[in-house]
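Recap slide: 8-oxo-dGTP diphosphatase, sequence and predicted structure.
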Amino acid sequence: MTTSPILVVAGVLTDGDSILITQRFDHEGGLWEFPGGKVEHGETEPEALARELLEELSIKVEVGEYLTETLHHYPTKSILLKSYRCKLVEGELTLHCHQAKAWVSQSELEDYIFSDADKPLVALLKSK
């Protein structure tokens, strides 16, 4: 039986030439990702991303440019990951759902092992 993919949004938050990446405790623990989460019923993608970053990192962001989307099939589910650039507006970054964070340059992205769904976004960011 085929189910619809889960719609997930991710934020590419930058500070100068550095990009924020996070490492999760739970699903695929130990792998790195761009922070974000599921879009809930009735939310727009930017609303969901702003909510998720507030919940997960205690920061308010302005969601900007749409970057790309990736459809990835895991053994038990499929996700459609849509990515946006984000600008920090307010708050001090505090980890609630992650075990680590790193601010990295585009070239340093290759030094981290990312979730399969995030790998196409890594490739896109490294090519810019």
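The beta strands are 6-15, 18-24, 32-33, 36-38, 60-73, 78-90, 98-104.
The chain has one domain: 6-126.
(End of recap.)
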